[in-house]
Structures are given as structure tokens and as C-alpha cells.
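I am still getting used to C-alpha cells and would like to learn alongside you. Please make up or recall a protein chain and show it to me in full. Would you write everything just below, so we can both look at the same thing?
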Amino acid sequence: MSAAWDTLLEGMTAFGSRRTLDIAIALAVFGLIAAIVWLFARRRSVSHIHSLEIEQGRLAQELATALQRYEIALHGSNVTVFTQDRELRYTSISNPFLGFEIDEIIGRTDADLIPARSRELLVNLKREAIATGEPRDRELQIDNGANARWFDFHIEPLRGREKEIVGLTCAVVDITVRKDNEEHLRLVMRELTHRSKNLLAIIQALARQTARYADSIDGFLNQFTARVQALSRSHDILVQEGWHGAYLADLLRSQIGPYVDQEKPQASWEGPPVRLRPEAAQSLGLALHELASNAAKYGALSAPTGRVSIQWTMLGGPNNDGIEIVWAEQGGPPVGVPQKHGFGSLVIERNLPRSLESEVELRFLAEGARCRIKIPGKHIFSPPTRPAFEPRAAAGT
């Protein structure tokens, strides 16, 4: 009995030892598998995190590039973008504004930056956008006393994560140049209206006086057409110069050119550069036309051997006493004193003194007509901006 019991105990002990060993082996295998799984999971997690970091870096670079382009675009334009909180404190701004640098603007309000006379309307506009949640647009002038500029404001409410209004964002465009151009255009239109009325009045006077001295309808049409064309040539010069006057040499060329042969010029002129004011250019242009027309009909330009010489000099004096123009003909047919005065004489001897306060002396000498015209300095721009004119001959136009 004792031997059998011992044998049983030995068997049970051996079985327990094998059981413990199996459990230990199983635990070891499980731990190894768990470690392998953890290593794979960690490696995958690290790889995923690395991918996220790369993607984050790429997005950050794209955002930085976009922001740089945005800043470059704003810095190179007349557009300023800023944000303000509900108390209208500036929280960001793209460019210096109203003469203040960016760091001088952040944290301050419109009361600190904008003069009182220009501030109230703008502040009310911003508060309306915050109160209503609706955008506002307005063109406003901001005047700091030394400089007044026009701005176009577009104001939008700025919303937070919960869609609540936390402030505003505003895009401002400096439109001062546009406003100046609009004002200039209005002035030009008023000036154009004024000049058009003056031109019509001149044309009416030309028609009336030409009809008074014309011998026939055909004569009237020819003379009136020639005078309107002469007026048109003077206007062409003024337009080319932007209505800032006309140079005397250009005026001579345009009025004498139609009456001379381009290949055999019969007229020449010389003198210092002189730029006439628009009113003087119109009146003197008509007078030069009448002198040239008369020379072509009866004087030096009616004969192949005839010559017309025009010289002008500046009159001295501290008050710019003006210029003296001398028209001299020679080599033409014999000239006598006209039995009656026509419209041409009226333009030269009466219109010039009345419109320009000029002195005019028209004489018909044996060698040809001679006319001296003295124009006061107030009808001349100074100093001239062209080089002096060399003696030259007229060419046809």
C-alpha cells in the first residue's frame, strides 16, 4: 500500500512539472507574439506620423507661399486690408495706412488715427456692418489738414467659430487719382463748352463780315471757306500742344504754307522761340491768313519773283514787353493803296488791337505790303522751351 501511494505521488509531481513548463512556454510564445505585433504597430504608427508631418509641412509651405503672394500683391497696389475687433481696435493690417506704419496702427482705434472731421461717417459705417451683419460700401474723403485723399471702403462683418460677429474686415482702395481724373474731366468738359461757344461766335462773325464784303455768293463761299480753314489750322496746332499755346513758327508754317510752292518756297522767317497763348494764336492766325491771302492775290506771292520775309524780335524790359513781328513783301507787282478796305484789313487793323491790345501798322509801299504787329507780353508764355529758330523757308501743307 505504501509503495503504491509513493508511485502515485511521483506521477502527480511529474505531471505538475510538465504542466508548469507548458504554461511557461505558452506565456513566452504569447509575449513574443505580442512584442512582434507591438513593434509592427509602432512602426506603422511612426510611419503614419511621419507621413502626417510631411503633409503638414507641405501645407504649411503652400500657405506661406500663398500668404507671400498676397502680401506682395497688396504691397504693390493701392489696396489695404485690415481687421478690427468689436471695439474697432485694429488687430491686423496689410500695409501702412494714413501715414502710420503697421506697428503704429495695431491695437489703436480710428479715434487715434483719423481726424475728427473725417472720422464720424466712417465709424458709423463700421458699426452698422457689425450691428446688422451686412457688408457696407462707401467712398469717403479723409483729410488730415495737410493732405486730402479719397478711399473706397468695402466693410464685411468678421465671424468667429460659432458664427458670432467678432469684428470686421475691410478692404480699402485709394481712389484719389481716379477722383482727380474725374475732376479734371469735368474741367475739360466745361472748358470745351466755353471754347466751343467762342469758336461758334468767331465763325458767326466770320460769316457775317465775309458776307458784308463779298461781291457774290461764290465769292462769299470761297472766302468764308478759306477763313474757316485758316481758323481750323490754328486749332490743329493748339490741339497738338494740348491747348497750352502755339509756337509762332508753327503758326506761320500753317497759314503761309497753302499759298507757296513747296519746291520753290517764296516765304522765309526767323526769330527767337515764341509760344503764344491760345487766344493770341487764334487772332494772329487769322491775321496771318489774311496777309498771306492778300499776297497770293495781289502781292509778292502772286509773282514767281516775289518774296515774303517775316522777322520777329523780343521787346526788352523787366515786364516782358512782348514781341514785334514784321511782315515784308518784295519782288511782286507794283502795289498801290487800296481804294476800299475789305474784311482782311478789318481783321488785321481792328481785330488784333481789340482782341490782343496790340499795335498794328499796315502800309502799302511801292516794293510791297509791309505790316508791323506788336503783341504785349501777357499774350506770350515765357520762358520758351524750344531752341531758337534758324532762318528757314516755308513749305506747302
Remarks:
- The two ends are 155 Å apart (CA to CA).
